[in-house]
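Form 7-S
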Amino acid sequence: MDHLTRLLLDAQRGDGDALERFVAATQHDVMALCRYLGDPDNADDLAQEAYQRAFASLHRYRATGPAKHWMLTIARRTCADAARKRSRRRKLERRVGALARDDRDDSVPVSDRSEVEALLHELDDDRRAAFVLTQLAGLRYEEAADMLGVPVGTIRSRVSRAREQLLSSLHAAEDAGSGEPKRRVGRPPSR
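Output:
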């Protein structure tokens, strides 16, 4: 059994010092993986998320393979999830942007317009208003806040939550349409 695996097993038993040493010993490799497989500008965030996932699933680690491989697998899956999320966000932004340019534009397929409209109608009224005013109508957050009579921070929060809800709905619709079972990520490899 290698040194890192022993550290991780000690951490699993509650040894906080062993966990810190494990992180210190694997941090360089995890950061490199996140930088090259993920978004170089967000490598720190990806690495942090990978460690959070690892800590959350530490109780399931069984030492059937080297701890370093387990950690790097979690980091790789974290990067893949982030890439999928960025892709879904770009796809949604293109769809919503196409709808915003002109509802009557024949170059935007009717199915895309109706899909985006349906997604927007899933939002509660406050989120939909903030999202449509800022993202579709092109108002600045300050203008939308003034128009709706709420603080700018409220508009930012509503737009952020609307975007996340839209992405989640779009992802669920894509999963339902693919016929593929949803796969849980961030888990250690089962052996």
